[in-house]
Amino acid sequence: MRIAIDAMGGDHAPKDIVEGALAAAREWNEIEVVLVGNAAEIEKYMTDKPANLTVRHTEEIIEADDEPVKAVRRKKDSSMVVAGRMVREKEADAMISAGNTGALMTTGLLVIGRIPGIERPALAPMIPTVNGNGLLALDLGANMDATAEQLSQYAVMGSVYRNKVHGIDRPRVGLLNVGTEAMKGNELTKAAYPLMEQAPIHFIGNVESRDALRADCDVLVCDGFAGNIMLKSLEGAASVFFSVLKTEFTRTWYSKLAAAILKPGILKFRKKFDYTEHGAAPLLGVQGLVLKCHGSSDANAIKNAVRQAKIALQNNLVSAISTEIQSREVRETI
Q1: CB–CB of 34/2 below 8 Å?
Q2: What pTM did the predictor assign?
Q3: How far apart, in whole angstroms, are the C-alpha atoms of residue 283 and residue 43?
Q4: What secondary structure does DSSP assign to 235-268, as a single string?
Q5: So where are the chain's domains?
Q6: Which of 58, 64, 78, 325 has the lowest tally of Cβ within 10 angstroms?
Q7: Which keywords does this chain's UniProt record carry (predicted)?
Q8: Using a CB cutoff of 8 Å and minimum separation of 24, what contacts does 192-196 make?
Q9: pLDDT per residue over 147-178, tens digit each?
C-alpha cells in the first residue's frame, strides 16, 4: 500500500512532517510512503532514508490563508493537489495532509471526487473520551449546512468507519441535540431522527453535547456548524482547564509539592486528551482515503496518521462505505 503525504502543509512543515513520515516508514516495512513537496526542502530533514520512502517533487504550496477553491484550481502543482491527484489516478492508496482544511475538502471533492450516492463528504475527527476509546464526530466543519438525508449518510459512514478501523462490532450512533427526547431540536434534527432510525446502524437516539466526553455513543452525528462549535468549545475548555491547573499548582511551595505527587496521574490524563495520539480526521465520502491532520501536528501525530491510514486500507474502508451506501439505495427503491 502506498500513502502520499503532503510534506508542505501544516504549521511545522516540512520538518515535523518529514520526521513523522520517516518514523512510520521505518516501523512499517509493508507500506510505501511518498513525501510530496519541494524536494530540496524535504532533503534538509531527511536522515537515513529507508527504501520504502520516496519523494515526489512539486513547486507550489497551498498556504493556510489561501482561498480554498481558487488555490486548488490555480495551484495544480501544489503538494496537496498532486497528492490528491495521485489518489485519483491510483498512484497512491491514501493521502495525508496537515495543511489548509478548506483546500483539502476542495481537493477531495474536485480532484478525487465523491463516492456515488454520497451528497456531501464529512470531516470526522476523533474526540477523546473518559474511557479512552474516543468518539467519532461528523461532520465537524466540512459543511456548514446539511440536510436530514446528509446527516443520515454521515451516520452510515461513521458507523462503517468505527467498525472497519476501530473494530467495534456494533457502533452506537447518536444525533447531537439539545435534549434526549425524540422530538427535541430544530427542524433539521427532527427530520433526521426518523431517517437515522431506519438506517442500517445501531441508532441510540439524541445525545447532548455535555455527554460527548462520557462515551455514551461511538459515533456522534451533527451538521458542520453545530459540530464545529462543539469541538472548539471542548478544545477551549481543555486549554483553560490545564492553564488554570498549572497556575494553581505553581502558586505556593505546598501546591508545588502536591503537583509533584500528582504529576504522573495528570500527565496520563493529559495524554488521554491529546489530539496527537488520535492521528487524523478522515474525510469520509470521497473515492479514496483522505486524512486531515491538525495544523499544528508534530512528528508523532503524522506517524499516528500513517498508522490510521494503514488500518483503514487493510480493512477496505472506502469500498465498505461505497457498498453500504449502494445497498441502502437499493433497499429504498424496493
Answers
A1: yes
A2: 0.85
A3: 29
A4: HHHHHHHHHHHHHHHTSSHHHHHHHHHHHHHHHH
A5: 1-118+285-316
A6: 64
A7: Acyltransferase, Cytoplasm, Lipid biosynthesis, Lipid metabolism, Phospholipid biosynthesis, Phospholipid metabolism, Transferase
A8: 192/148, 192/151, 192/152, 192/221, 195/148, 195/149, 195/151, 195/152, 196/151, 196/152, 196/155, 196/221
A9: 999 999 999 999 999 998 888 999 999 999 99
